Amino acid sequence: MKFWFLLTVALASILMLFHLHVINRHTREAFPFSTSRDTWSHDLTSHRSRRTAPPLQSGTNSVTWREEQSKGDQETHHVFFLKVHKAASTTVLGVMLRFALSRQLAVMLPKRGNVLAEDTKFFHQNVLRLPEGRSHYDMLCNHLVFEERLIRRTFLHPDAKFLAIVRHPFDQFISAFQYYRKVYSVPYLTKIPGRNPIATYLKNPDKWEPINPLTSYTNNRMSFDFGMKHRYVSNETYVDKYVEYLENTFDLVLVVEMFDESMILMKRLLGWRLQDILYIKSNRMHDKQEYFFTNQDRKIHRKLRTADYTLYNHFYKVLRMKISAAGPGFFEEVMHFRNIQQNVEKFCLEPKKSLSLFVNSSSWNEAFHVSYLDCVLFKMEEVELVDVARRKLGPLDGWPELSSFNALFF
C-alpha cells in the first residue's frame, strides 16, 4: 500500500513540473521581455544607444546636418527594416535596396521570390547565403515576421538600426482586403459575397477568417508582422507591454500618414543623403473599387482589431514627439524634399537616356543628378528589384536567371 502511495506522489510531482515547464515556455514565447513593466531584460536593451540628430538651422547656406554628422558618425550601412503588409513598405524596401546597390552592401535576401517568410518558422532555409568574406548581413528589408533574438543574434551586425512602418489600421485593412482579394485571389476573401464584400465581412468576421491566423491579411496583421502572438492579441496588458517592448527595440517607426516627415527623420537618423531617400510610390492599385463606409463600420473594426489600433496610436504619438524635437528647420526640409520629389516624378514619367535632371545644392543636400537609370530603378517592381539585388549583391553561385529587362544593369 505504501509503495502505491509513494508512486502516486511521484507521478503527481512529475506532472506538476511538466505543467510548469509548459507554462514557462509559452510565457517566454509570448513575452520576449521581462515581466516587470519597468525592467527590461538586459540582452534586449544593452545595445541601445539613443541619439537624436542635431536639428537643422533655418536659413543656413551649408549642408548643416551632413557637416555635423561627418564629424563623428558616418552614414549607417547596417539597417533592419520590418516590411509590414500594405503599409507603404514596398516603397521603403525600394529605398533600402537602391541604397544597398549603390554601396555594394550584403543584403539578406530570399533565395527565390521576394518574401523571406510569412511566419517565424524556418525562414532561414530561404535565405541566400552571405557573399564570401562577409561575417554578417548589412541590411535586411524583405518581408518576415519579427523575431528580434533570431534577427539580431544570428544575421545582422550588433549595431544595426531597427526601423519599421505602421499605417492607420482601417486604411491598412481596406488596402489589404482589396489587394489580396483581387491581385492574389486569396480564397477566404474571394468567397465573401455582396456588392460591398468588406461591409459583409465586418458584419461577421469570424465567419470568414481562416482557421490559421497567420494565413489571414485582415486580422491584426500589422501586430502579427511585429511578432505579437495571435492567441494574446485580445489581452490588453500583453498588447500594451509588447508595444512598450517594441518602442525600446526600434530606433524609428515610420507612419504612412506622415510619410515624408518619416523619411526625413530616417535620413537624419541614418546619416543618408537626400538623393538616397527619393522614391516613386509602389504597389498602388489604380483600378481598386471605392466603397462607402459608415462611422459604425469603423467602430466595428476598431473594436475587432484593438491590437493594431494600440500599435498604430502609440507610434503615431511617438513620431509626433520626434518631429516636435527635430528643430525649427525640419518642416522646411520636408517641403524642400517634397518639391524635389515632384520634380523627380515628373522627370521619370517619360525619361530619356540622353537627359538627366540636375538638382541644385541647398541647406539639406549637395548637388546631384537624377539619370535615366535612376528612373528605371525608381519605377521597378519589387520582384524585379529583388532579382537585381540578388544578382548584384549575392554570392556568385547564387545568381538566379533574370529577365531580359535586367540586362540594363549588367
Q: How does this structure look, described?
A:
A hairpin with an 8-residue loop joins strand 6 (357-359) and strand 7 (368-370). Residues 16-29, 34-72 and 397-410 have low confidence and may be disordered. This protein starts with a helix and ends in a 17-residue tail after the last helix. Helix 15 (330-349) packs across helix 16. With 410 residues, the protein is mainly alpha-helical. The radius of gyration is 24 Å and the shape is globular. 47% of the residues lie in helices and 6% in strands. Residues 39-68 are annotated as: Disordered.
The end-to-end span amounts to: 84 Å
Structural class assignment: mainly alpha
CATH architecture tag: 3-Layer(aba) Sandwich
Major β-sheet strand ordering: 2-3-1-4-5
* Oligomeric state of shown chains: single chain
SS summary, helix count: 17
CATH level-3 fold name = Rossmann fold
Radius of gyration: 24 Å
Major sheet characteristics: 5 strands, parallel
Give the C-level CATH assignment.
Alpha Beta
Number of strands: 7
In helices, the fraction of residues equals 40-55%
Strand/helix succession: HHHEHEEHEHHHHHHEHHHHEEHH
Mean pLDDT: 82
Unreliable stretches (pLDDT < 50, length at least 5) are 16-29, 34-72, 397-410
What overall geometry do the principal axes of the alpha carbons give?
globular
Tally of discrete structural domains: 1
Strand-residue fraction? Answer: 5-15%
